[in-house]
Amino acid sequence: xxxxxxxxxxxxxxxxxxxxxxxxxxxxxxxxxxxxxxxxxxxxxxxxxxxxxxxxxxxxxxxxxxxxxxxxxxxxxxxxxxxxxxxxxxxxxxxxxxxxxxxxxxxxxxxxxxxxxxxxxxxxxxxxxxxxxxxxxxxxxxxxxxxxxxx
Length: 151
Fold this sequence. Notes:
Elements: E1 2-5, H1 19-28, E2 37-41, E3 45-53, E4 62-64, E5 68-76, E6 78-85, E7 91-95, H2 96-99, E8 101-104, E9 111-116, E10 119-123, E11 127-133, E12 141-150
Antiparallel strand pairs: 1-10, 2-3, 3-12, 4-8, 5-10, 5-12, 6-9, 6-11, 7-8
């Protein structure tokens, strides 16, 4: 996991060839950007932008991916994302073959990323994460980009 501000994104360009174009797109997004899928390199790298009200932690699930890394970037709003090692979790739903995602039971031990406007987190394949968590349990309207990068 990497957590940082978008103005520091250049430090991470060397991690993967798709990081530079993805971060450049993320940096261009604002409150008026259209909610949609933004193509970068077909299914190798793309960004989904959406606006929603996040949820109490009890309504959120841990998930992980095998093929794709996520870069989750808050354009407006505020959100927590919990992260823990996948091997410590018991899978409840495995959709790796169809959608590159599995869901897990809750974890007792995790780290919390506090994402405010302009903050991103990189979640690598195999890192379990619980997105959409409302800060202090109170739903906040959030506009978030989720970049998917094939690893």
